[in-house]
Amino acid sequence: MTQLAERQDRIAVSSELTVSPTTSPTSPSPRLTSLDGLRGVAALAVVLHHLYLIATPVLIQQDGSGIGSPDWWLSDTPLKLATAGAEAVLVFFVLSGLVVALPAIQQKGFSWAGFLGGRMIRLYLPVWASLALGTALLWLVPRDPSTVTDGSWLADSNARSTTVGSLLHQAGLTQASYEVNNVLWSLRWELAFSVLLPLFVAIAVLVRRLWWLAAAVAVVLGAVGTQTDTPALQYLPVFFLGTLLAVRLEVIREWTRRRMRRPRARLWSVGIVAGSLLMLVSGWLIRPLLPSGTLGNDLVTDGEVIGALGLVVAAIGAPFLRRRLESRGCQWLGRISFSLYLVHVPILATLAFALGDRRWWLIAVIGIPLSLLGGWLFHRAIERPSHRLAQWTAGRIATRIGHVRNLPRRVEPLEA
């Protein structure tokens, strides 16, 4: 039974950081296993990003931030890729745009109502469980503000107490900040994309022949959103880029297959992967020439979504990257990626307040394996059952709607 359950969990095409879309009762779309691995690696980068936020104030106090300092190595060199958490979320959004839209595009008789009903369960149940975990840790381990650096991410973005009213607001995924588990800000946009999915798919299908122009417009809109501090304009176009990939998926696969038959194919693969990775953290790497906060740096940073898009394309079409992402370790990370994403901040923040952020190295030694274990347990106890319930709910809704539609219509007699 356990093997059968694991197989059922791995059938549906997965999504969002993490979240697998709920399919209709028709046959599921083929799974893109390399994207599972990419999602797992991105989730681990988010974990390391929050460890970086814990350590940075202490490292700067001890060694400054000049060239050659630990902070410089971690932020202004390609090593930043290991802790590129905000950039990894862009990868999540592109992945969601692709894999959530794919069943809607490929499956005949796709039930929008069934999808949305299942999707709500798939999102909300794990979110509520993560808030319950964060609240329990708040009660069990009191958070003394004197143990962390003033003005740091730990001090400013993580709750030291909470109320029922605050928890209810956070549980709705409708607010901008989430003190009990601050990674939930991204789930707010996953929810918005899920509701708007029919519109995204319709537009992507409509402009599929001019996909390059539509992609350019999406990138520009995202940049405008960043510059004007309009989150909806900043993030929703990133999902649309993934939806465009879903519409053009077979074309992309065929294009990459042709490229792989040409001379120097491996060089091309390495080039697109390296270029995408560097583009993903370009805003950090360009800081010596264009400091943070300048218009030039902002414009370069706005282009990081192109790196996220290129990385997803490379995961689909670059054989050497695909093989690595399909390895057992990456696939395991991909399987627990949503759960890992949801549990790691409450765990790391609790350790940091208990041990003090000056012991960031000890927090890392304990926190990384504890987050992985917590993600695995959360996956088995919460995420996997919620996924099954979401699939069952989607199927029931789709069946009910189909049954109602197929009922014979009663013809009323004409009045005399």
TrEMBL record:
<feature type="transmembrane region" description="Helical">
    <location>
        <begin position="333"/>
        <end position="354"/>
    </location>
</feature>
<dbReference type="Pfam" id="PF01757">
    <property type="entry name" value="Acyl_transf_3"/>
</dbReference>
<keyword id="KW-0012">Acyltransferase</keyword>
<feature type="transmembrane region" description="Helical">
    <location>
        <begin position="123"/>
        <end position="141"/>
    </location>
</feature>
<dbReference type="GO" id="GO:0016746">
    <property type="term" value="F:acyltransferase activity"/>
</dbReference>
<feature type="transmembrane region" description="Helical">
    <location>
        <begin position="81"/>
        <end position="102"/>
    </location>
</feature>
<feature type="transmembrane region" description="Helical">
    <location>
        <begin position="41"/>
        <end position="61"/>
    </location>
</feature>
<feature type="transmembrane region" description="Helical">
    <location>
        <begin position="305"/>
        <end position="321"/>
    </location>
</feature>
<feature type="domain" description="Acyltransferase 3">
    <location>
        <begin position="33"/>
        <end position="379"/>
    </location>
</feature>
<keyword id="KW-0472">Membrane</keyword>
<feature type="transmembrane region" description="Helical">
    <location>
        <begin position="210"/>
        <end position="226"/>
    </location>
</feature>
<feature type="transmembrane region" description="Helical">
    <location>
        <begin position="360"/>
        <end position="378"/>
    </location>
</feature>
<feature type="transmembrane region" description="Helical">
    <location>
        <begin position="187"/>
        <end position="205"/>
    </location>
</feature>
<feature type="transmembrane region" description="Helical">
    <location>
        <begin position="232"/>
        <end position="253"/>
    </location>
</feature>
<dbReference type="InterPro" id="IPR050879">
    <property type="entry name" value="Acyltransferase_3"/>
</dbReference>
<keyword id="KW-1133">Transmembrane helix</keyword>
<keyword id="KW-0808">Transferase</keyword>
<feature type="transmembrane region" description="Helical">
    <location>
        <begin position="265"/>
        <end position="285"/>
    </location>
</feature>
<dbReference type="InterPro" id="IPR002656">
    <property type="entry name" value="Acyl_transf_3_dom"/>
</dbReference>
<keyword id="KW-0812">Transmembrane</keyword>
<protein>
    <submittedName>
        <fullName>Acyltransferase family protein</fullName>
        <ecNumber>2.3.-.-</ecNumber>
    </submittedName>
</protein>
